[in-house]
Design a protein that fits this description.
Blueprint lengths: L5 E9 L3 H12 L4 E5 L5 H6 L1 H17 L15 H11 L6 H9 L3 E4 L1 E6 L2 E5 L5 E12 L3 E3 L7 H4 L4 H6 L6 E5 L3 H12 L3 E6 L10 H14 L2 E4 L3 E9 L2 E8 L4 E4 L1 E4 L3 E3 L33 E3 L10 H19 L16 H4 L2 E4 L5 E5 L2 H6 L4 E7 L4 H6 L6 E7 L4 E8 L7 H9 L4 H4 L12 H11 L1
Parallel strand pairs: 1-2, 1-6, 2-3, 6-16, 8-9, 8-14, 9-10
Antiparallel strand pairs: 4-5, 5-6, 7-15, 11-12, 12-13, 17-18, 18-21, 19-20, 20-21
């Protein structure tokens, strides 16, 4: 390898999604020379195939559902959505899958970009195969951060390769609305895409192995989403398993036939498998540092990979499986960046719960919003998780439809709120809200949990009237009067 093909930096980041961008931003801002290696689009999954395009598809659908229940507006929204306009808006939100703007941001932040596929090549070394076939060897003085994220995991079904199934990428980037769409899975991707495509005119059939939607959340969340999907015309089936799939072409017809365990068959135009995620770690050179390719990368709370000595390798974002959310990955990136900077200066990172160099929130205050009709917002523990952990908690529920603020939102408002209060410490350790507009309640709940705000202090946080945030007062009153 020629000398000019070897480049040295303080920090090498593999992956230029939001997580990698944030790690690089923190280290570059501290004066460390930083390079980001990216094989696809700068901005990553979130910008082009996940958060941004999915919400662009969902917002018109959910807004229309809310408006259809508001007196004076409801007649104006009876017509079908303008799908061409919605898809054009989705394209704009995804920057038409052009990353020029994000590349320009990297330059403005003093971060170098190297296009190509990066693989670990040894301690503090990354080999990059560039699009023109050249190989560049990068060497890091201080740190390498693997920020490659995750990808859709497809089940090992007979015929699945020939079917050309949708994953989350195809579901958010589709150019036309399928007449019939089957969705296999009960999680966030499944319910969000069911909401979006049913609202855009597709006949959606959900094939769910479990006995409810959103099985990792409070049961009432999945029940409300199921109710609304069925009201919108979706066919939601529980307790069913897919055993085989095949695509058949007969002249102009192009159909997918899905065989179920009970022998029934579902015929659709497209099928989306929303059956989980896998780490993008199969081809990043893990074997060069003694790790197993294709596995999740285990880290401590400083985001340092625990099975590689020397405190130089970091895994940040989805690839470490700590919390598969863009916002949580960006939080980890801020922590990892601070740790890398501290170690580069010969400083020992601060450790301990809620320390500046510890990603404590990954285990205690992970927020998430499901942008369905209705919205679901969660942070911290569910009642089932608290029970499994042996936590002594009090479960407090309140019907959101009883609030004056929710009735202003829509007169037939249906929704529910739940908080879990740790009886010993008298602090909130979990919250779930289900109903239109509840996503904006989530940050207050996250602050209450991360800040360990005593319940008696929450009494003095006065919500404005009439807003949905008044639910906090009602939850505390319900607990007091129980």
């Amino acid at each position: 390898m020629a000398t000019e093909d070897i480049r040295t930096y303080d920090v090498i980041v593999i992956g230029a999604g939001p997580v990698g961008e944030n790690v690089a931003d923190r280290t570059a801002a501290a004066g460390l020379s930083t390079v980001v290696v990216e094989s696809e689009l700068v901005g990553g999954e979130c910008s082009y195939w996940a958060c941004e395009p999915s919400k662009a598809l969902l917002r018109p659908v959910v807004l229309r559902a809310d408006a259809a229940h508001i007196p004076g507006i409801d007649p104006a929204v009876r017509n079908p959505l303008d799908t061409e306009a919605v898809l054009a808006h989705r394209d704009r939100m995804s920057a038409d899958w052009n990353d020029d703007g994000q590349v320009e941001w990297l330059k403005s932040a003093g971060i170098e970009l190297l296009r190509g596929h990066g693989r670990l090549a040894g301690e503090r070394e990354v080999s990059v195969e560039t699009p023109d076939g050249e190989t560049v060897l990068l060497r890091a003085r201080h740190a390498v951060a693997v920020c490659t994220g995750s990808s859709a995991a497809l089940p090992p079904l007979p015929g699945i390769d020939e079917v050309r199934p949708w994953t989350s990428r195809e579901a958010t980037a589709a150019r036309t609305v399928p007449r019939r769409l089957a969705i296999v899975g009960a999680g966030v991707v499944g319910v969000e895409m069911a909401t979006a495509w049913q609202g855009l005119g597709s006949r959606v059939t959900m094939l769910v192995r479990e006995d409810g939607l959103l099985p990792r959340m409070e049961p009432f969340a999945g029940e409300l989403v199921t109710e609304r999907l069925r009201e919108a015309g979706a066919d939601v089936r529980f307790g069913v398993s897919v055993t085989a799939v095949r695509r058949e072409r007969d002249g102009a017809a192009d159909e997918v036939r899905i065989t179920l365990a009970d022998g029934d068959e579902v015929v659709v135009d497209e099928v989306l498998f929303a059956t989980g995620r896998a780490p993008r770690s199969a081809d990043v050179g893990l074997e060069a540092v003694g790790l197993e390719p294709g596995e999740w990368l285990a880290t401590d709370d400083s985001l340092t990979v625990t099975d590689v000595p020397g405190n130089w390798l970091y895994a940040v974002g989805d690839v470490n499986r700590r919390a598969l959310f863009t916002h949580q990955g960006k939080y980890q990136a801020r922590i990892a960046g601070a740790v890398i900077v501290a170690r580069s200066r010969g400083e020992r990172p601060a450790t301990g719960r809620w320390a500046p160099h510890s990603a404590t929130a990954d285990g205690e205050a992970v927020p998430g919003v499901v942008f369905t009709d209705p919205e679901i917002a969660t942070v911290g523990l569910t009642a089932a998780e608290a029970e499994r952990e042996g936590r002594d908690v009090e479960v407090v529920d309140y019907e959101l439809g009883h609030l004056a603020g929710s009735l202003q939102y829509r007169p037939d408002y249906r929704g529910r709120a739940r908080i879990l209060v740790d009886r010993k410490r008298e602090v909130v350790v979990g919250a779930t809200f289900a109903g239109p507009g509840v996503g904006e309640l989530l940050y207050s709940a996250t602050v209450a949990i991360a800040g360990e705000v005593p319940v008696e202090r929450l009494w003095h946080a006065v919500p404005a009237f009439p807003t949905i945030s008044e639910v906090w007062l009602r939850l505390l009153e319900t607990r007091r009067d129980a």
